[in-house]
Amino acid sequence: MTIDTGIHTSDVIVIGGGTGGYSTALRAASLGLDVVLVERDKVGGTCLHRGCIPSKAMLHAAELVDGIAEARERWGVKATVDSVDWGALVATRDDIVARNHKGVEAHLAHAGVRVVRGGARLTAPRTVRVEGVQDLTARRAIVLATGSRPRMLPGLVPDGRRVVTSDDALFAPGLPASVLVLGGGAIGVEYASFHRSMGAEVTLVEAADRIVPLEDADVSRHLTRGLKKRGIDVQAGARLLDAELLDDGVRARVRTARGETRTVTADRLLVAVGRAPVTEGLDLAAAGLTTDERGFVAPADWNRLETAVPGVHVVGDLLPPPSLGLAHASFEEGLLVAETLAGVPSAPVDYAAVPRVTYSSPQTASVGLTEAEARARGHEVAVDTMPLTAVAKGMVHGQGGMVKVVAEAGGGQVLGVHLVGPHVSEMIAESQLIVGWDAEPADVARHVHAHPTLSEAVGEVFLTLAGRGLHQQ
């Protein structure tokens, strides 16, 4: 999908073909706008090719391995994993990615979006030069969607084998016998979980005083318990002092929360300490744009995601908080910008109602405010927490976990819902609607949850908060 060389004028130019960019392009084209999408690599971006999709494919394989262990240890099914055919696993993962990639390309082609391959550089607020291809001009707007890259720690240089980033961890050769993971956010926890399922000895180091530090404290506590139960050495409040490359791995010194210095030797050091926005080569100054001190391109108008330069909008990982740096948030940002440019009424993104999921074992899923955030904002809250093992289906799964709901005291609106346990990534949609629609516990308590299910625990918590509890004392 390319267009002829020369100068081309369109309604909208989108720079970056990741989730934020291609969603903007697809929606704008569906609304009758002439759209050009510039992408220097492959449409789909980090999420499709190096992040969300391949990592969740691998985590599904890990779940199957865990299921065999559970079958043997809990249910008397005498099954074992003889070995993991790494090549076959990778081939299945890559096939899933390739089919998704072809699907995105087909959607863009069907929508009439013209895709230009190459690196883009701004030359003015409405003009773009695609290196080696052509100059482009936008009648209405330019949308910046160039995504992010992994952050690295000083002194660590990834080599794709002994030191890897979250972008290339899945593509490193083979399965290591031991891994040191730096970073206890969602990405680090997921990689720690995957490698443990595949038999590796795993040490997880997080500088904050708890893992997944942006989540509710009870989520961190239950997740830590679940990971430790699986044999992962979780070191919160710890930091890397230094790391030495060995012929076949790394030797690192870690300062623990107690002030002790530990030496950790591992086949692989996986760095997952966050992501940084990518603006290099864009020449933002040519369009009158600047970044903030963290490298983000902040909008002047969050209701339109428009920068201080009229006609230049931004979506995805270039946005600072409260944007979440999540693919599904980028989809909503893309819809908002496209509809804004087409003159279609569109509500601003409600980031509090965007779900957050960690696909580890156990999983976490949350939406809305944590208990601490709610109290810090001056809310008087009513909180109820229920272990998943308090319902029959939770006992069947046997993985622990919990449901926690934070609501305004006195029967007021639900402010946040927090889940830990098996399959909670598939359970959060209900809570997303509850928080997004400003529902109250009594509103939810009127609706019957199927028995026996894991989601029954969600219903039980709302029944309790509404004064109609059945199985909670």
From TrEMBL:
Cofactor, free-text remark: Binds 1 FAD per subunit.
Task: List the PROSITE patterns hit by this protein, alphabetically.
Answer: PYRIDINE_REDOX_1 (PS00076)
State where it is primarily located: cytoplasm
Catalyzes what?
N(6)-[(R)-dihydrolipoyl]-L-lysyl-[protein] + NAD(+) = N(6)-[(R)-lipoyl]-L-lysyl-[protein] + NADH + H(+)
Give start and end of each Pyridine nucleotide-disulphide oxidoreductase dimerisation domain. Answer: 354-460
Gene3D superfamilies assigned to the protein according to its UniProt record, in alphabetical order: 3.30.390.30, FAD/NAD(P)-binding domain (3.50.50.60)
User: What's the superkingdom here?
Assistant: Bacteria
Which keywords fit this entry according to its UniProt record? Cytoplasm, Disulfide bond, FAD, Flavoprotein, NAD, Oxidoreductase, Redox-active center
Xref: Pfam families: Pyr_redox_2 (PF07992), Pyr_redox_dim (PF02852)
- What are the subcellular locations of this protein? Cytoplasm
Return one GO MF term.
Answer: dihydrolipoyl dehydrogenase (NADH) activity
Question: In which family does this protein belong, per the annotation?
Answer: Belongs to the class-I pyridine nucleotide-disulfide oxidoreductase family.
- UniProt miscellaneous comment: The active site is a redox-active disulfide bond.
Q: What is this protein called?
A: Dihydrolipoyl dehydrogenase
Please give the organism. Streptomyces tricolor
What lineage is this protein's organism placed in?
Bacteria, Bacillati, Actinomycetota, Actinomycetes, Kitasatosporales
